[in-house]
Amino acid sequence: MLWRELTIHTTEEAVEMITNFLHEAGAGGVSIEESGSTNKKRDTSLGQWFDEIVPFNDIPEGFAVIKGYFDETTTLDEIHNEISPRVDELKDFGIDTGEVRYEMKTVNEDEWATAWKQYFKPIRVSNRLTIKPTWEEYTPESEEEHIIELDPGMAFGTGTHPTTSLCLRTLEMVVQGGEEIIDVGTGSGILAIGAARLGAAHILALDLDPVAVSSATENARLNGLEEKITVKESDLLSVLIDKSVQSELGVALPVQIVVANILAEVILLFIDDVYQALQSGGVYIASGIYKNKEELVQAALVSSGFQIADICREDDWVAFVARKN
Predict the structure, then answer these.
(1) Are the beta carbons of 32 and 64 closer than 8 angstroms?
(2) What values do phi and psi take at 310, rounded to 5?
(3) Statement to judge: residues 306 and 221 lie in one domain
(4) What share of the chain in percent tops pLDDT 90?
(5) How far apart are alpha carbons 32 and 157 in whole angstroms?
(6) CB 224 within 8 A of CB 147
(7) Is 7 within 8 Å of 31 (Cβ atoms)?
């Protein structure tokens, strides 16, 4: 099978928004390659495998190459005309996209699969969590090391992006065991699976993208966690106001923890909904926030009644641990 490949050269800061644009335009899959230069600092405190496995690339530091794959009947000029204005508008939201450049070509499906899978290897993201692609072999180093089996398919979330690994490490600090959790914008389901591995009692994984819902459902099955993870195509507000579905959620509202690894612009839209979804003393982990939006999100959290318990950082990304007063 042939696929139409749309390549977008941009910045790391703009990756998540542009990735979302590609999915909304109907991409059957998206690959992301960020700077692999020798100048880029790498965290090896947990023994992550970078240099030995993933070859360096010539992408300048701070920049990224995003590739969206579309059905062979798709006209890429139309997709470009749909996405380009939305990318240009990101500057109005304070997101630096750099000098955006587009390329188009046709590729074979086998070429696509091989191209992105060669960069996705087992990676230790925290003291207790290791992400393992389903097609790779890996043996845990100890009984305390928990494996997240993952095949992201067409959904976002492999754990290699700073926002995802940052969120998993933050979950490891917060989850004590037995909590009921809501994962907003679950993507591949990686955070829900991580929370379950850390001892959460049940996780409600929400996403508006049917592709993500399918991917998260399959990854929960691959990890044998169907009984602990309920995946729904929904946003948080719909779950809160629709009493008829609440008996099917697997969690009892309000819950102890809400986690959202999305974008600052989206997080700002539903902070009050998160406050409503949490028990008194409950914790909100908000990630996917680029450093230039840190003060804005912090102010909004405090304004809604949250107390900032901790601020975690990786590269230029921020995760808040906010507690409901």
Answers:
(1) yes
(2) -165, 155
(3) yes
(4) 52
(5) 11
(6) no
(7) no
Query: Into how many domains does the chain fold?
Result: 2
Answer whether 0.85 is exceeded by the pTM.
no
- Confirm if 180 and 188 have CB atoms less than 8 A apart: no
* Rounded alpha-carbon distances, angstroms, from residue 308 to 273, 304, 317: 17, 11, 17
Q: What letter does residue 245 receive in the DSSP assignment?
A: G
Q: What is the DSSP string of 90-137?
A: GGGGT----S-EEEEEEEEHHHHHHHHHTT---EE-SSSEEEEETTS-
**Residue 223: count of CB within 10 angstroms of its CB:** 22
Q: Does some domain include residue 101?
A: yes
Residue 226, both tokens:
């169907």
Residue 122 lies in a domain: no
Domain-embedded: residue 273: yes
Show Cβ contacts of residue 295 under 8 Å, excluding neighbours closer than 6 positions.
Answer: none
Give the end-to-end CA distance of the chain in Å, rounded to a whole number: 54
Sheet strands (E) in 172-301: 180-184, 202-207, 229-233, 255-261, 278-290
Q: Tokens 């996780």 belong to which residue? A: 203
In three-state secondary structure terms, 154 is coil
Residue 248 falls within a domain, yes or no? yes
CB atoms within 10 A of CB 231: 26
Model pLDDT for residues 176-214, shown as the tens digit of each residue: 999 999 999 998 899 999 999 999 999 999 998 887 898
Task: Determine the Cα–Cα distance for residues 53 and 180; give it in Å rounded to an integer.
Answer: 37
* 22 and 75 both lie in a single domain: yes
Backbone φ and ψ of 7, nearest 5°: -105, 135
- For residue 47, which phi and psi values (nearest 5 degrees)? 80, 25
Domain that holds residue 294: 128-324
Regarding whether 286 and 163 lie in a shared domain, the answer is yes
